[in-house]
Each structure stands twice: as structure tokens, then as C-alpha cells.
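Hallway conversation turned thread

IA: we were arguing at lunch whether anyone had actually written out Tubulin beta chain end to end. Turns out nobody had. So, for the record, here is the sequence (458 residues) and right after it the C-alpha cells. Reply here if something looks off.
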Amino acid sequence: MREIVHMQAGQCGNQIGSKFWEVISDEHGIDPTGAYHGDSDLQLERGKYVPRAVLVDLEPGTMDSVRSGAFGQLFRPDNFVFGQSGAGNNWAKGHYTEGAELVDSVLDVVRKEAETCDCLQGFQLTHSLGGGTGSGMGTLLISKVREEYPDRIMMTFSVVPSPKVSDTVVEPYNATLSIHQLVENTDETFCIDNEALYDICFRTLKLTTPTYGDLNHLVSATMSGVTTCFRFPGQLNADLRKLAVNMVPFPRLHFFMPGFAPLTSRGSQQYRALTVPELRQQMFDAKNMMAACDPRHVDAHSKWLEPFIMNDISTTTTTTINTLTSLFARYGFCEEIVSDNRTQFTSEEFAGFCTRNGIRHIRTTSGHPQSNGQAERYVDIVKSALKKGLHNGGKISDVLSKFLFCCKSTSHATTNQIKHRLWSSDEDLIAMNPTTITSDHDKYPSALPSSDQGSKII
């Protein structure tokens, strides 16, 4: 077996965690007492089922509500670990004082659960980032477990605070302090926020007064969907590590936005028959995302190409700084500059320029550039366009201008908008007849927009 130890911290974490166990118990035919009801001989032999779960809070109230719930008898009594004072929505109390006093008791229970596993693959935590226990003690527990089990996968379902749905004024502080811990000590984090959940309840499920029970049901359904590939046979994402391999491009970039489909109001479920394309479209629709942001909105800064013609012989530190100054004067300062190790970038003058303007400077070798790959792709595109244009007898400045015109007037594949509109959100653009630039179509056929879209310039 490939076991996962489940942990739930704080009021929010315990509520969504308990609902999660209700949902998957129902999927596997397990009743509130832990008995299996079904026709599988293997399952019938095993007798009573108990969740491999550790329930943590700094006050007893949440534990009492879990015990008195429908599936309260399902959990092992020794796995309830709680304090008496609470964290008072204070991250520091959960991380450094009250939580630090209780964390050793929690780790003892975690060790006991891990030792009973045949082949432990990792840990799963449910918590919120806005409260005191879930954020403060939750991140402390993550760091302690990571110290003890560094080669196991750590997955979290983190409820992120939202400005539109907030009940505590210090939620932004608690979340900011928690994010650093999640970046460093988790391998997979599923981001969920109440604003998106409320929007789904209002707009899609047509609930006039959604309760926390409705929100928890959405979260538990999402968690059930995420863990389906672990609980049932399949070819894709069969364990936590394979999920990370498939989903995480860089180790620190492991924050996921789960989408859930199908979502329909209760009255219309029996009348709705979804096809596979409709299901896929719903799943990636921003209205079905559990985090209130639209992934289709592209940041134009990350897609904006601005090449300059420089002379290798006369390119000194001063000319480099002057060129960057003219760029920053038009578009504002950047946060980071990535360059090679040539003298104009390694001089004290350039270092002072970056320091004065709050710019982080990263140097890398030209033979093995270390950026996100996009800069290298843009360099290859520009070089290819210049080579093609110069081969046809053009002047380098004219060729570059025409290439940039083609590049910036082409609609973005995701948003179907030109880059200037992504940049400025400006509708006041002058339409230009595409026939006026047909002579360049032979040089850059892939960069020009089609005639039915039209081409626009400032």
C-alpha cells in the first residue's frame, strides 16, 4: 500500500477535513461507524476502517463539534490533539507560543501513524491561512514534519483569505507570514478562497443564502476529485510524487488552482447532459475555479518585447545605462534584470544604478542562460526575423521596426487581444487597413494577423 497521513489544523481545517472524510467514506461504502457495506470480499475481511488522520486545534470547541458530528465516531480518539487557550487569530501565537507548546504532542501522533504505514508516500494538511491556528501552527507543523520526513511529499489544501469575504482584520498578515513557509516546505499546495466559493454558490448553484456547510461541501468535493487518482486504479497521477512531477514546473512554483466540473443548480441537474468538450470547458472556466482569479488574463509586462540596436564596440556601461533609462522612462522600473557577465554589466557603475533604483541584478553565462526560457525564445525569434529581413536587402532599423509592428499587432493566442490592449487596456486605437502592409506579409507571414481580425496601431 501507499499510505498518506492526513492532518487538519484549526477550525477551518477541521471542518473541511471532516467533510472530506464524510465524502470519501460514502464513495467507498463505509458508514459512520467505520463498517464497510458492499460486495468486495477483500474489503469485508478488514473489519472496521479508521481514518489515518490527526486532528489539531488550540481550543477544544472544534474537536467537540467534530466528535458530535455524523462521522465523529469514525476517528481514533487518541488522534485528537488540542489545547485550551486558542490562538486568537494571531499567527505568532500559533507558530511560536501556544502552537510550539503543543506541536511535540502532535508529532508523536503523526509518528505513530507513520510507523504503522507499509510504504508512506507523504502527508496531506487542510488548514486556512487567515486564522491563527491553521496558519501559525499549521505552518509550524509542516516545517517540523518536513524536518523529520524530508523525502516524503507534503501536500496542503490551503484556504486563502479574500478581501470580499473576510471576518478578521489581520488575515492579510497571517497569510503573508504563512506563504513563505508554504513556498519552502510544501511540494503541492491547492489554493482555495471563500470569495470564489461564494461566487460559485450564488451564480452557478443558485443558492440565495449559502452557509459554511455549502462552502465546505464544495471544498470536500474538490479534495475528493484530487485524491481520486490515489484511491482508485488509474494511469495518471497514481501517487503524490507523480502528481508533483506532472504539475510542478519549478520546485517553488507549486501552487495550484483547482477547478471543479460539472457544477449545476440542484433543480436542473436531471435535465443537463454534458459532453466531454463541455465538461473540459467548464473545468477550465474561471467561474468554476476555487480561487477567485482568471488565469486567462495575461500580464502584458511578461509578454512585451522591446529590442534595441547596440554596437558591440561602443557599448559601454554608460550607453547601457542610458538605454535602460530610456526604457524605464516609458514603461517604469522592472524588479529584476538578467544579464550575461560582460564588462558593462559587471562594473560598479551598473551595480550602483541597479541599487539606486531597487532592481535585483542576476548574472548568468551567455552559453548557459538561466532564466525562465522565455527570454531565450524571444532572442531566437528576433534573430530569425532580422536574418530573414536582412537577407532580402533591408536596413536593420527598418527590418526591426516592421518586425515589432507585426509582433505587437498580432492577437494573443489566449486572450485574442493585441499586446497593446493587454498593456494599457486602451480602446482608443486607430484602425489601419491591413492591405497597406501586404508587402511585408511575405517576410513575416506568421506574425501578421489575418485580414478578418484587422490590424490596429496607436
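OS: looked through it. Confidence is low (pLDDT under 50) at residues 426-458.
IA: good, adding that to the notes. Residues 300-457 form a domain with the Nucleotidyltransferase; domain 5 fold (CATH 3.30.420.10).
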